[in-house]
Amino acid sequence: MGWVSQDVNGDVSELTYEQARDELIEIVQRLETGSTSLEDALRLWERGEALAARCQQWLDGARSRLDAARTGSTDAPEAPDGAAEREAALDDVAAALDTEEDEGR
After folding, report:
1. Would the pTM of this model clear 0.90, i.e. be above it?
2. CA–CA distance from 86 to each of 19, 69, 98 (Å)?
3. Helix (H), strand (E) counts: the chain
């Protein structure tokens, strides 16, 4: 295993959401095959836990930014042109985040 080292989680904090998610998917697939040694399976599991936590950090951050954007748009005295479309787009993003969180559990 090329990327597994003594410190299997050292680089996780530098990964984007997509990188962490994709690697987590690969790890799950490898663990599901059951073809790894016990030691490798434990390392993969630990790495997967760190990747899942990183994904959750990204989702939490996105949720906070979305909530802040939505709060900011509802506090405006009069909605500018395009506000309804922006609000609909924010609702779509919120729904996508909910789906990502539900699929991750």
Report:
1. no
2. 28, 10, 18
3. 3, 0
- Let me know: does 87 contact 73? Beta carbons within 8 Å: yes
Integer Cα distance of 46 and 39 in angstroms: 11
Q: Which two tokens stand for residue 30?
A: 């490898």
DSSP for 49-89, please give it.
Answer: HHHHHHHHHHHHHHHHHHHHHHHHHHSSSSPPTTHHHHHHH
Q: Which two tokens stand for residue 1?
A: 């295993």
Q: 78 — phi, psi (to 5°)? A: -135, 130
Token pair in block for residue 91? 């609702």
- Residues in Cβ contact with 66 at an 8 Å cutoff, skipping those fewer than 6 apart: 90, 93, 94, 97
Residue that has been written with the tokens 């962490």 in this structure: 20
Measured CA to CA in angstroms, residue 84 lies from 62, 65, 79 at distances of 21, 18, 8
The string of pLDDT tens digits covering residues 75-95 is 444 544 555 666 666 676 777
